[in-house]
Amino acid sequence: VSSRTSDTGLEMDAAQETSSRGVRERRFNLDRAGRVIPGLVWTPEDAPAPLPLVLIGHGASGSKREPYVVAVARRFVRHHGFAAVAIDGPIHGDRRADGGASPDLAFLEFGQLWRDDPTMTDQMVEDWRAVLDAVRDLGDVGAGPLGWWGLSMGTIIGLPVVAAEPRIQAAVLGLMGIVGPTKKRIEADARGLGCPVLLLQQWDDELFARQSTLDLFDAIGSKEKQLHANPGRHTDVPPDEFEATTAFLARHLRP
Amino acid sequence: VSSRTSDTGLEMDAAQETSSRGVRERRFNLDRAGRVIPGLVWTPEDAPAPLPLVLIGHGASGSKREPYVVAVARRFVRHHGFAAVAIDGPIHGDRRADGGASPDLAFLEFGQLWRDDPTMTDQMVEDWRAVLDAVRDLGDVGAGPLGWWGLSMGTIIGLPVVAAEPRIQAAVLGLMGIVGPTKKRIEADARGLGCPVLLLQQWDDELFARQSTLDLFDAIGSKEKQLHANPGRHTDVPPDEFEATTAFLARHLRP
Fold first, then answer.
1. Cα separation, A41 vs A138, whole angstroms
2. Neighbours of B9 (CB within 10 A)
3. Is residue B187 classed as helix, strand or coil in its secondary structure?
4. Do A225 and B231 touch (CB under 8 A)?
5. Minimum-distance CB partner of A229 among B226, B230, B251
6. B230, A225: Cβ pair inside 8 Å?
7. What is the 8-class DSSP label of residue A42?
8. How far B238 CA sits from the closest chain A CA (Å)?
9. Which of B225, B238, B251 sits opposite A231 (nearest CB)?
């Protein structure tokens, strides 16, 4: 495998670099003291840095290559000229020995990890901060406005990331509530938020009780926050909302 | 006062006709068996009928000339080439002897009327249907796609209008809940809805308890429905939401 390592430790896999319809996609690994973080970064083929950058957290069972993750990332690049980056979640994608070939198993194991390992969230926050620093050091990305996009596990992990990272200026969160083993922390993180937040809710979500998501919206401390609720189960988010979420971040991150 | 009456009974006040920045505004009265309905109709200065038409219901204390009503109407005309029509609510605007000069009194009286007069809603539904027929008969409007836009009293009256009128293809409602004297009817009307609905909620609404609006959203029978909640009191709807509501109707009514 042909690869090169940037000054900031991003090891780019040149063999996996692709470019299509104006979007350049690069596969990287970031070595954080022996913990390897696999990721993808999407950039416009031709746009001057610094670019607004959106951090995308995927949902449990998926990966950084999840079709909707790639679609959202490409949308930010093509429609708005932003950069986007996604990494594999804990025990997901290329962090697994099976390379993400067992989505149901990853889902199950994530549930156990969330319940049993209180360090999981902090590890992921540190992974994201390391990735953020490294990606912003890329010459064609730079230190532009910063946003978060993540639903479900992308909020379980994203809420703490946004709470911990003052550089994030706007966030799309959702399909999650104040539930589970880290309930108190979720509530505290929510109260600590200050940036504009769009929170998505599936009205008939079978994984997160309706009230738990309303409680999360209520707890969010940001002066500017929006709840968008739609009928249907956890994964039934309507296509319109994907557009609404990208438009929301585009509005807040436009330089 | 110079006036002319159309075949369908719309008495247009030519002296009050204005045109600015591509928007023609006409003041009309419609006589429905002695009950005079005062209204305004906005159309593009130059667009071929049939046009999509949005019926706009104003909030209690206001009138068909309420600044946000005019702004929403003009937005539909200028940005989307639609027509729009607003009429004065019960005991509001030009239906009052004071011509709408006492908004607080109108608000108070509407509260009493809503509580005490079970015929109020049906009267307003009939007023709206008569106006709808007459406006669609205007040569420069015609029978195009049809939508409803109304918050607060514009939903108290609008929900029954949308429930009764199968020609309405999409509706913006909000700032209301399942409360008050007509609770059962509100719920029944909501369950009977079939068209796409965008429901706005102010999270800290001092007039409608949070749960009552969530109950209304829950009851809406439409397969396609969206709740948008924002922090703040009853009248603190953020400007973004006005854009979202017009975009919502534009998407559903575009011919």
1. 10
2. 16
3. helix
4. yes
5. B226
6. yes
7. E
8. 9
9. B225
pTM, two decimal places: 0.91
Residue of chain B nearest A210, judged by CA positions: B214
Separation of alpha carbons A173 and A152, rounded Å: 8
Length of chain B: 255
Say if the Cβ atoms of A203 and B226 lie within 8 Å: no
The answer to whether the complex's ipTM is over 0.95 is no
Question: Digits of tens for pLDDT over chain A (255 positions)?
Answer: 456 666 678 999 989 999 999 999 999 999 998 899 999 999 999 999 999 999 999 999 999 999 999 999 999 999 999 999 999 999 999 999 888 888 999 999 999 999 999 899 999 999 999 999 999 999 999 999 999 999 999 999 999 999 999 999 999 999 999 998 789 999 999 999 999 999 999 999 999 999 999 999 999 999 999 999 999 999 999 999 999 999 999 999 998
Helices (DSSP H) in B137-222: which residue ranges?
153-156, 158-164, 183-192, 210-219
Q: For residues A56 and A39, what is the distance between their CA atoms, to the nearest angstrom? A: 10
Tell me whether residues A231 and B238 touch, CB distance under 8 A. Answer: no
Interatomic CA distance for residues B210 and B215, integer angstroms: 9
Q: B149: number of CA atoms within 13 Å, CB side? A: 30
| Nearest-angstrom CA–CA distance, B184 and A128 | 51
Give whole-number Cα distances, B15 to A243, A247, B4, in Å.
45, 43, 10
Element holding B249 (H helix, E strand): helix B239-253
Structure tokens at B16: 């009050």
Question: Residue A79 forms beta bridges with which residues?
Answer: none
3-state class of A201 per DSSP? Answer: strand
For chains A and B, what is the number of CB pairs under 8 angstroms?
41
